[in-house]
Amino acid sequence: MTWIYLILAGLCEVWWATAMKLSDGFHQIGWSIITIIGMIASFAGLIIASKHLPIGIAYPVWTGIGAVGSVIVGVVLFHDQMNWLT
């Protein structure tokens, strides 16, 4: 169950990062609220997971899911360009 919390927390990282992009610099109140809820959910999941996993494992997994997920969302949803040569 601990790993499930950690994976969900990582997915919440993607959630809030995506919502923050959609908030247009926190000018869109709805997306801004969704961003803050995602941040709270993400940290809560990390806190729960780190009670049973070493922080040296939990934190890199959490940030890794968030980083990779955010790149995927950027490429797929926002059509961000990835240039592998530069």
Summarize the structure.
With 86 residues, the chain is mainly alpha-helical. The chain is built from three helices and no strands.
Question: Descriptors for this entry?
Answer:
86 residues
Can you put this structure into words, describing what you see?
With 86 residues, this protein is mostly helical. The chain has three helices and no strands. It has one domain (2-77). The model has no long low-confidence stretch (mean pLDDT 96).
Low-confidence stretches: none
In DSSP terms, counting alpha (H) and pi (I) runs of 4 or more, how many helices? 3
Element string (H = helix, E = strand): HHH
Over the alpha carbons, how many angstroms does the gyration radius reach?
14 Å
Strand content: under 5%
Number of domains: 1
Task: Report the mean per-residue pLDDT as an integer.
Answer: 96
Instruction: Assign the structural class, choosing from mainly alpha, mainly beta, alpha/beta, alpha+beta, or little secondary structure.
Output: mainly alpha
The count of strands amounts to 0
